[in-house]
Amino acid sequence: MELRHLRYFLAVAETRHFGKAAELLHMAQPPLSQAIRRLETELGVDLFTRTTRQVAPTGAGEVFRTDVERILKAVDEAVARAGRFASGVEGVLRVGLTGAASYRQLPALARLLKREMPHVMMEVHTEMLTPAQELGLIERRLDVGVLRPPIRQEGIAHRALADDPLVVAVPAEHWLAGADIVRIEQLRHEDFIMYGATLGSVLNDAVVRSCLASGFYPHCAYEVTETSAALALVAAGLGIAVMPDSIRAAPREGVMCKEIEDALTVPLVLAWRSDDTSPLLLNLLKVLEQNDVFLDGIEGVA
After folding, report:
1. Phi, psi torsion values for 157, nearest 5 degrees
2. What is the pTM of this model?
3. Is the dihedral of CA 112, 117, 123, 128 positive or negative?
4. What percent of the chain is predicted at pLDDT more than 90?
5. Most CB within 10 Å of its CB: which of 38, 157, 207, 294?
6. Three-state SS at 4
7. How far apart, in Å, are the Cα atoms of 67 and each of 10, 38, 64, 71, 76?
8. Nearest Cα to 99, choosing from 192, 193, 231?
9. Dmax of the chain from CA atoms?
């Protein structure tokens, strides 16, 4: 049984006339009649009652028609989906993000994809520091990463998304909670909550450089692996955390975020494998470009 024979059957069932069905199918009537006869022989049932004046589906023909309509609709949708996948407008986009980027960039990216690429589903992996995202890209477990350079792995291209100033998150009852703006020097004697030293955090490096520029090394009282954990410890009054400004997008009870006058900024980029030429990635980059998401042109491959 071939799909074209099912389409022949459906045309006859809908028009109830072999001549009209043949015209609809752009074929001669005799081959159509022969094809329907062969289909009935193959099924072992009569699909139509035939008179000199009309053709009508039998009871078995009506049941068969219902199933054929469902089958052909599924086939047509499968063909359409295959085309959408091939053209990059449908598929699964595996995205890695740093903890702070999950607060601001993730909602913005999700809204944009829903509007511009509605058939694309996001598989989201948050709280991934730059080294983990680099590895995920190289090992093809991620399609794109929202991370903070420098990128040390070869074969990764990137474009700038933001340049976040650093802010300090302090407990609501902290002596700096009422300040409009803070200087790094004022944090000299504070307990810092930082990412684990073995995680290769780009943010940690920026915090340390900012503190060293003011003549001291930050005292790390607690190490965490996730931004949410750092903010929870701040809310508990166990220390302060210097974080990218994007954490302000999700206020947390018991935590106040203050601008730092003399801190460094930390860039945020979208990264992908430089050898990835998949239509899905190319469409994503095009959509981001058209919506002015990037700050600049494509960077050299890391």
Report:
1. -100, 160
2. 0.72
3. negative
4. 81
5. 207
6. helix
7. 10, 19, 5, 6, 14
8. 231
9. 102
